[in-house]
Specification:
The chain is mainly alpha-helical and 241 residues long. The chain has 2 domains: 62 residues, Arc Repressor Mutant, subunit A; 155 residues, Tetracycline Repressor, domain 2 (Orthogonal Bundle). Helices cover 68% and strands 0% of the residues. The protein contains 12 helices and no strands. α5 crosses α6. The protein is globular, with a radius of gyration of 21 Å. The protein starts with a helix and ends with a helix.
Length: 241
């Protein structure tokens, strides 16, 4: 009984206060990120915005890297939530593939959160290195698994292995075979190559839009993106017997 009581005991007052203060710091850091961009992020600036000393902030985040890791992880998680919500939501087209819905959820989040998107995919922050196999890696794996599932769920491993793509070099084939896998089952190298190529296409279009390089399309950017994602998915599926 004592073990159960310890397991189910609510957080102590001290723990609740620490959690609340940590959340307040993260919220302030995200506001600072939105106002000034990732390159200007510093513990001193965040502490100043909260009326704290840097020394006090160190009790919650011992370094700038620790705060950046939290911000990156949260951004990836929020992005993955947006992608999954887009997949689950009713579509405005009855036959819209779920992969296209996922891509559009990715695009909408990036457009709505350009500074946080830049933190994830813009110029790397000077002197910052994400922890190996840490929370940022777990967050990226979650999003990768969504796109992999929606792209390949209807195909067996045997069909994916027989995808019609240019012959892979032995070194690339070996490299793709040893990559860590995030989805339901291990992808054969041809499918991994297709997934990475599709990701580059999708992400490239979003980056161009977020950084203002497709403004000449005006209000047609969403339609062009949907058309591109439909064509991309159709081409991939045509390659799988």
């Amino acid at each position: 009984m004592a073990v159960d009581e310890r397991t189910t005991a609510p957080p102590s007052l001290r723990e609740r206060r620490r959690a609340a203060a940590t959340q307040e710091i993260v919220d302030a850091a995200e506001r600072h990120l939105t106002e000034h961009g990732p390159a200007a992020l510093s513990l001193r600036a965040v502490a100043r915005s909260l009326g704290m000393t840097v020394q006090a902030l160190y009790h919650y985040f011992p370094s700038r890297d620790a705060l950046v890791t939290t911000l990156v992880t949260k951004a990836y998680d929020d992005l993955a939530d947006a992608v999954q919500a887009a997949v689950d939501a009713p579509s405005d087209e009855a036959d819209l593939p779920r992969l296209v819905s996922a891509a559009e959820g990715y695009r909408r989040w990036a457009i709505a959160n350009p500074e946080r998107f830049q933190l994830l995919y813009g110029t790397p922050l000077r002197d910052y290195a994400a922890p190996v196999d840490g929370p940022t890696t777990d967050a990226t794996r979650r999003m990768s698994s969504i796109f992999e599932r929606e792209m390949f769920a209807e195909f067996t491993v045997e069909r994916l292995a027989a995808a019609d793509i240019p012959e892979l070099s032995p070194s690339l084939q070996a490299y793709l075979e040893q990559l860590p896998h995030y989805g339901q089952g291990r992808l054969p190298p041809p499918a991994t190559a297709l997934l990475m190529s599709a990701w580059g296409h999708l992400h490239g279009l979003v980056v161009l839009e977020v950084f203002g390089h497709t403004q000449f399309l005006g209000d047609h950017q969403a339609e062009i993106f949907r058309l591109s994602m439909r064509n991309l998915l159709a081409d991939i599926h045509r390659r799988i017997p």
